[in-house]
TrEMBL record:
Gene3D superfamilies the record matches: Glycerate kinase, MOFRL-like N-terminal domain, MOFRL domain
Name this polypeptide is given: Glycerate kinase
Gene Ontology cellular-component annotations: cytoplasm
A matching Pfam family: DUF4147
Gene Ontology terms, MF aspect: glycerate kinase activity
Length: 453
């Protein structure tokens, strides 16, 4: 699960942190969760009677889409007629499929091969009729992987807009409000293309609060946002995007282009959705592993959001309070959280939200340890670890990082934060966590281990 575990710092607290992360990722395995959500007995699917349909196909996309599709094949066997899903690096996928074709896209910036794959996905949806049952597979990462520019826009327009949004510090729901209004598949448009087929959607959520309209930009659900909302996001964050995008949104605001279908639109009458996994799945499993190790766990929240470096400061402060006063729980303790933090990019470095969280925590721990006032005594043997459960944090090959008070000096850490260059500093300290692609994606998982002094 953690490929470079032998190279990471080792202490009882480090081992507990890594065990908790591994347990959380394992619990979010989409194959196991699909088996729990879907079964076939005597020709009957738990969500439908397959005998009522002339064809049963799988359509969708996301980082976990291939794993879910493979499990659906195993469950349904000959009852499944085919389909296709889009994921990243299908050649490196730990699973293989016989009936469902796995096509390639790219994340986080959309690509030409993603556009070609998405065109085929839309064609398959449009070919469905009233005798077709579509098993929709929608997982985190689908916004970038399922890429179909609106008619007036180019792939280059989408790439530039995505770059600007990801660097702006905008939240995922704000980013996706723009994506949906520049797309031919997002914001319920895949469901519209598939009419009049019945659709049963299985979702692996990587979105805080499980807003279905935000997961993969909601291709199978109604969109509560508008062209005006999308334009407001670009204005709010002063995003420099191509003129074609601004013109497209302005035409939508003027009513010259149809809005995305809204919740309650008749197009969704035949669509039902089941969330088979989310961030809470990983958080609860990590907390259970802490208990097994003899630590008292506290789940801070599975919905942490905001700037990664600021969230880290808060969680280190909680660790200090646990060590200093025994509140809210006494050490040895583990604080677990999930959610999705963001990074406002001002520098030219490399990193991701979880690496920036870890680096910011390392600065706080090191500064406290160096404080002669006694504040450092409250740090104790505290270890902070954070990963993206898909194994890919930002545009890097690392899942995240693991730190303590000795990982870096405060000055080095602060300079790296100013440049948004967490990867280089953590790498030089042998503090990057390498899992490789995990086959799941339920957002961030963070563990703060406060050992007994």
């Amino acid at each position: 699960m953690i490929r470079n575990r032998d190279q990471l710092p080792s202490s009882p607290a480090h081992e507990v942190a890594l065990d908790c992360l591994a347990a959380g990722i394992k619990a979010a395995d989409p194959a196991r969760l699909t088996r729990r959500a879907v079964s076939l007995a005597d020709g009957a699917l738990t969500v439908d009677d397959l005998a009522d349909y002339g064809a049963v196909i799988v359509l969708g996309g996301g980082k976990a889409a291939a794993v879910v599709a493979a499990e659906l094949e195993a469950i349904l066997g000959d009852a499944l007629d085919g389909g296709l899903v889009i994921t990243d690096s299908p050649d490196a996928s730990p699973v293989s499929t016989q009936r469902v074709e796995v096509l390639a896209g790219d994340h986080p910036i959309p690509s030409e091969r993603g556009v070609e794959s998405t065109r085929r996905l839309l064609e398959a949806a449009e070919a469905a009729d009233e005798s077709t049952l579509i098993l929709g597979v929608i997982t985190g990462g689908g916004s970038a992987l399922m890429t179909a520019p609106a008619e007036e826009l180019s792939l280059a327009d989408l790439q530039a807009t995505t770059d600007a949004l990801l660097a702006s510090g905008a939240t995922i729901d704000e980013i996706n409000a723009v994506r949906k209004h520049c797309s031919a598949i997002k914001g319920g448009r895949l469901a519209a293309a598939a009419q009049p087929a019945d659709i049963r959607s299985l979702v692996v959520s990587d979105v805080v609060g499980n807003d279905l309209a935000t997961v993969a930009s909601g291709p199978l659900v109604g969109d509560p946002t508008t062209y005006a909302d999308a334009r407001a996001v670009l204005d709010r964050y002063d995003c420099d995007v191509p003129a074609a995008v601004i013109d497209h949104l302005d035409r939508g605001i003027a009513g010259e282009i149809d809005e995305t279908p809204t919740p309650g639109d008749p197009v969704f009458t035949s669509v039902t959705t089941t969330i088979i996994s989310d961030g809470r799945t990983a958080v609860e499993a990590a907390a259970d592993r802490a208990t097994e190790a003899g630590f008292d766990p506290v789940v801070l929240s599975s919905q942490i959001r905001g700037e990664a470096r600021e969230a880290a400061k808060t969680q280190v402060a909680i660790a200090e309070e646990i060590q200093a006063s025994g509140r809210p729980i006494a050490p040895p303790a583990v604080v677990v959280s999930g959610g999705e933090t963001t990074v406002t990019v001002d520098g030219d470095g490399t990193g991701g939200p979880n690496q920036e969280f870890a680096l910011s925590a390392a600065v706080e721990l090191a500064a406290a340890a160096a404080d002669d006032s006694g504040v450092g005594d409250a740090v104790g043997d505290t270890v902070v670890a954070a990963v993206d459960t898909d194994g890919i944090d930002g545009p890097t090959d690392a899942a995240g990082g693991i730190v303590d008070s000795e990982t870096i000096t405060p000055g080095v850490g602060r300079r790296a934060l100013a440049e948004n260059d967490a990867t280089a500093v953590l790498d030089s300290a042998d503090a990057l966590i390498d899992t490789g692609p995990t086959g799941t994606n339920v957002n961030d998982l963070r563990v703060v281990v406060v050992d007994a002094s």
